[in-house]
């Protein structure tokens, strides 16, 4: 069964194939070589569609060797290397692309994004963070870079940075991020509770509710903190709100009240 990421890799290549063949179809020299490359390219696409990664890599390596100027082939190889876990090869390939003279801003941005994704796959989050942060500062591919930065800060449990970048992503794309921001605020509320900072807990929960009025987690946390503080009426109101938002949480709501 063809997975979603596989389609995301193959579909652009099919479109590229038409352009690539059109470009070379107009050339009058080297016709036999061009025909051979065309057949090889579609053989590689066929392997991709059949999820035969090893054979696809072998084919695209042949194309890359014969036609070193085709950047799309380099990007395809880099993605295949990363998917196979050959991150070192992907990193070297994308570093080589970045160092090429004469790249357009779009091509260089794409290569830097790919290199950052290689670093993420390799667990080199500090290097990936530096690349994505630089792209955001330049305004290049900001939405993609911001989304990757959110993932990095989640992995590092840097919730405030995750919140800041979620807000920036929302501004850049107009995609609602309230539910995710509320989750991050709840993480900060939990951290404040462990540190005995009750005022901090309430502040983070207020921001969580402002970001997502339907946050069950925020309601549960509010009920727990108010109950611990001896404020039973406020705790009951918070637990009732959690139950109204999602009846499946009713056992969790009733447990502290019994």
How are the SSEs ordered, and which strands pair?
Blueprint: H1 4-25, H2 31-49, H3 53-66, H4 71-83, H5 87-98, H6 105-122, H7 125-138, H8 142-155, H9 159-173, H10 178-194, H11 198-211, H12 216-228, H13 232-245, H14 250-254
Helix pairs in contact: 1-2, 2-3, 3-4, 4-5, 4-6, 5-6, 6-7, 7-8, 8-9, 9-10, 10-11, 10-12, 11-12, 12-13
Supply the key terms.
single chain, 258 residues, mainly alpha, Serine Threonine Protein Phosphatase 5, Tetratricopeptide repeat, 79% helix
Total domains: 3
Which structural class should the secondary elements be placed in?
A: mainly alpha
Outline the biggest β-sheet.
none
Mean pLDDT over the residues = 80
The gyration radius over C-alpha positions equals 25 Å
Would you mind describing this structure in some detail?
The protein has 14 helices and no strands. The chain has 258 residues and is an all-alpha fold. Residues 4-37 have low confidence and may be disordered. The chain is 79% helix and 0% strand. The chain is elongated and about 70 Å long. The chain folds into 3 domains: 1-10 and 40-97 and 114-123, Serine Threonine Protein Phosphatase 5, Tetratricopeptide repeat (Alpha Horseshoe); 124-175, no CATH class; 197-258, no CATH class. The two termini are 50 Å apart.
